[in-house]
């Protein structure tokens, strides 16, 4: 069938299968493949695994087998990705299987590019039935590295476990993939191509998303800051998907200078980088920001554009503080929150800084397990406006994903609002001033996370089992060095909207002074096990707020290492990443 066929072809021209869309659908026999269970955020594996014969096709077909036909037949699905290696080939496979299963239309970002938050925005704006995101987020890309796929449904939110469990179940019994016999779609030109009644629209990945952001923020306020000669801004796109967004938004719309964007071209291997905006992997940006006379504001985003890191000159804003500060300032600095946010939420391991803002502003507050999908129900139910995770995720109910560029614009709005009456030559209120003022008002929650990446799964699992056992034997009042236990548990969450229960979400020891040590295995790695230890301690005394977090937390870190016997179980002397 030619790509420009507008009329449905006659049924007799497709002898293989009934073709309600007027295209031929071929049945590809297949067999179940082990290990297609999705983690915290979709299915992630080495790209070589995804490139094996039917690996991707099986999962996509299993997804269609899991949805009710009314959720996709003749419907619209969005497709986008972070530009990593294999996305182009994968786009073609997904489009053909979608057509083979009776989807009516695919909206795909030009060159297959669309950030995770933009996919969420487009699903909502175009009233699509859902969408696919081709990304392994912050994991490196290229022939030797990772690939991933995630499905979001009609609210723009990652599919809940009830759907992903079904998909997994169907991957274990799959026998056939339905593929439309259509040519590869040219993803380089905007516009609609029809194949029978099925069509593909290649869309600009930026415009719908930018329009939404313009409704959330006061762009002229932000623009007035970015165009000041006494304010220097730098954004590191890490050669990942926000490269496609940074220039149109920060430079073309908001007037930042064009040299304020670094690594602004999305590359299939992220320029050999590890596109995770933290102190370890965004080191180039950190070095620039810590130089004498460095820029006033620095930010970075990850592979698929949903994470963010915010820096002031010589100053790192920890993500747990970032969401608290955005929440505390949202009403005055961001038009979308006029009248005040509805409620606030954080993931369990994220520090309690946000809790204090909720308390002071008298807002609804929720603590959910790690994973953005847990926020969506609360948003849909009108209970939640602003939320965040220690894992560099911050966002709001403008969409149903965390949003890196949103976080940068939120921070720029706060800085702009604080400085809107400052004349040239007057000293500006800086990022670090804003954070320190916040600590002075609310107290400081010192926080750090230690990651031990790619450990042997066996040792890591044994360590968690050991900790669960310890929890079951522990009781309030137990002494842990100089700390007294308030309680210890393995976090369980009951969704207040639909009553669903998520258990075994992280082992936590909470002490009587509010300090916490928490242990989890990451659900986003692609090889081995990543152990995460989260350490937190509250400090009300502002004379101690300038202390380095690693020094302030040293006694608790040592306690966490000894309580967990981490060295014995994993053989690891040192973490791979500290944030
Ligand atoms: C992704 C998810 C987040 C999660 C983070 C870390 O970015 O979207 O919700 O907090 O990964 O998850 P992990 O299971 O690796 O700790
Ligand atoms: Zn991401």
TrEMBL record:
<dbReference type="Pfam" id="PF02879">
    <property type="entry name" value="PGM_PMM_II"/>
</dbReference>
<keyword id="KW-0460">Magnesium</keyword>
<protein>
    <recommendedName>
        <fullName>phosphoglucomutase (alpha-D-glucose-1,6-bisphosphate-dependent)</fullName>
        <ecNumber>5.4.2.2</ecNumber>
    </recommendedName>
</protein>
<dbReference type="GO" id="GO:0000287">
    <property type="term" value="F:magnesium ion binding"/>
</dbReference>
<dbReference type="InterPro" id="IPR045244">
    <property type="entry name" value="PGM"/>
</dbReference>
<dbReference type="InterPro" id="IPR016066">
    <property type="entry name" value="A-D-PHexomutase_CS"/>
</dbReference>
<dbReference type="GO" id="GO:0009507">
    <property type="term" value="C:chloroplast"/>
</dbReference>
<dbReference type="Pfam" id="PF02880">
    <property type="entry name" value="PGM_PMM_III"/>
</dbReference>
<keyword id="KW-0479">Metal-binding</keyword>
<feature type="domain" description="Alpha-D-phosphohexomutase alpha/beta/alpha">
    <location>
        <begin position="36"/>
        <end position="175"/>
    </location>
</feature>
<dbReference type="Pfam" id="PF02878">
    <property type="entry name" value="PGM_PMM_I"/>
</dbReference>
<comment type="similarity">
    <text>Belongs to the phosphohexose mutase family.</text>
</comment>
<dbReference type="InterPro" id="IPR005844">
    <property type="entry name" value="A-D-PHexomutase_a/b/a-I"/>
</dbReference>
<dbReference type="InterPro" id="IPR005845">
    <property type="entry name" value="A-D-PHexomutase_a/b/a-II"/>
</dbReference>
<keyword id="KW-0413">Isomerase</keyword>
<dbReference type="GO" id="GO:0004614">
    <property type="term" value="F:phosphoglucomutase activity"/>
</dbReference>
<keyword id="KW-0150">Chloroplast</keyword>
<dbReference type="InterPro" id="IPR036900">
    <property type="entry name" value="A-D-PHexomutase_C_sf"/>
</dbReference>
<keyword id="KW-0597">Phosphoprotein</keyword>
<keyword id="KW-0934">Plastid</keyword>
<keyword id="KW-0119">Carbohydrate metabolism</keyword>
<dbReference type="GO" id="GO:0005829">
    <property type="term" value="C:cytosol"/>
</dbReference>
<comment type="subunit">
    <text>Monomer.</text>
</comment>
<feature type="domain" description="Alpha-D-phosphohexomutase alpha/beta/alpha">
    <location>
        <begin position="208"/>
        <end position="311"/>
    </location>
</feature>
<dbReference type="InterPro" id="IPR005841">
    <property type="entry name" value="Alpha-D-phosphohexomutase_SF"/>
</dbReference>
<dbReference type="InterPro" id="IPR005846">
    <property type="entry name" value="A-D-PHexomutase_a/b/a-III"/>
</dbReference>
<feature type="domain" description="Alpha-D-phosphohexomutase alpha/beta/alpha">
    <location>
        <begin position="320"/>
        <end position="442"/>
    </location>
</feature>
<keyword id="KW-0809">Transit peptide</keyword>
<dbReference type="GO" id="GO:0006006">
    <property type="term" value="P:glucose metabolic process"/>
</dbReference>
<dbReference type="Pfam" id="PF24947">
    <property type="entry name" value="PGM1_C_vert_fung"/>
</dbReference>
<dbReference type="InterPro" id="IPR016055">
    <property type="entry name" value="A-D-PHexomutase_a/b/a-I/II/III"/>
</dbReference>
<keyword id="KW-0313">Glucose metabolism</keyword>
């Amino acid at each position: 069938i030619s790509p420009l066929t507008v009329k449905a072809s006659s049924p007799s021209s497709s002898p293989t299968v009934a073709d309600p869309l007027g295209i031929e659908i071929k049945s590809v026999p297949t067999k179940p493949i082990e290990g297609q269970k999705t983690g915290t955020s979709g299915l992630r594996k080495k790209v070589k695994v995804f490139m094996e014969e039917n690996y991707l096709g099986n999962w996509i077909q299993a997804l269609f087998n899991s949805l009710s036909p009314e959720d996709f037949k003749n419907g619209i699905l969005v497709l986008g990705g972070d530009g990593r290696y294999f996305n182009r080939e994968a786009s073609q496979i997904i489009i053909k299987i979608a057509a083979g299963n009776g989807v009516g239309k695919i909206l795909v970002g030009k060159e297959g590019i669309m950030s995770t938050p933009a996919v969420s925005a487009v699903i909502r704006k175009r009233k699509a039935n859902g969408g696919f995101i081709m990304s392994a987020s912050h994991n490196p890309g290229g022939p030797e590295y990772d690939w991933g796929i995630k499905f979001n449904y009609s609210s723009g939110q990652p599919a809940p476990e009830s759907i992903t469990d079904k998909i997994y179940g169907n991957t274990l019994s799959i026998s056939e993939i339905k593929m439309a016999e259509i040519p590869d779609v040219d993803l380089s030109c905007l516009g609609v191509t029809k194949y029978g009644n099925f069509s593909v629209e290649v869309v600009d990945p930026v415009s719908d998303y930018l329009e939404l952001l313009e409704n959330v923020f006061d762009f002229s306020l932000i623009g007035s800051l970015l165009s000041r000669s006494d304010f220097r801004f730098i954004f590191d796109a890490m050669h990942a998907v926000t490269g496609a967004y940074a220039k149109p938004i920060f430079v073309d719309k908001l007037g930042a200078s064009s040299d304020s964007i670094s690594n602004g071209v999305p590359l299939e291997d992220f320029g050999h980088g590890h596109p995770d905006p933290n102190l370890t992997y965004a080191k180039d940006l950190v070095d620039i920001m810590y130089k004498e006379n460095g820029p006033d504001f620095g930010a970075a985003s990850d592979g698929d554009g949903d994470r963010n890191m915010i820096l002031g000159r010589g100053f790192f804003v920890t993500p747990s503080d970032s969401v608290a500060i955005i929440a505390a300032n949202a009403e005055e600095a961001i038009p979308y929150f006029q009248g005040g946010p509805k409620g606030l939420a954080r993931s369990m391991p994220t520090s309690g800084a946000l809790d204090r803002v909720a308390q002071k502003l008298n807002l609804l507050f929720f603590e959910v397990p790690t994973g953005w999908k847990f926020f969506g129900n609360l948003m849909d139910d009108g209970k939640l406006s602003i939320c965040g995770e220690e894992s560099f995720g911050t966002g709001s109910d403008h969409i149903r994903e965390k949003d890196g560029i949103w976080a940068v614009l939120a921070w720029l709005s706060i800085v702009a609002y604080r400085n809107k009456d400052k004349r040239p030559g007057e000293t500006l209120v800086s990022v670090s001033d804003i954070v320190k003022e916040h600590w002075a008002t609310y107290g400081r929650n010192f926080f750090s996370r230690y990651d031990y990446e790619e450990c042997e799964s066996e040792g890591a699992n044994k360590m968690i089992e050991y900790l669960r056992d310890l929890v079951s034997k522990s009781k309030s009042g137990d002494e842990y060095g100089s700390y007294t236990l308030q309680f210890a548990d393995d976090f369980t969450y009951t969704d207040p909207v639909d009553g669903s229960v998520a258990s075994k979400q992280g082992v936590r020891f909470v002490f009587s002074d509010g300090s916490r040590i928490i242990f989890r295995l990451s659900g986003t790695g692609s090889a081995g096990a990543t152990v995460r230890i989260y350490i937190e301690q509250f400090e009300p005394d502002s004379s101690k707020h300038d202390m380095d977090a690693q020094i302030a937390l040293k006694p608790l870190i040592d306690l966490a290492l000894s309580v967990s016997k981490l060295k014995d179980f994993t053989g690891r002397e040192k973490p791979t990443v500290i944030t």
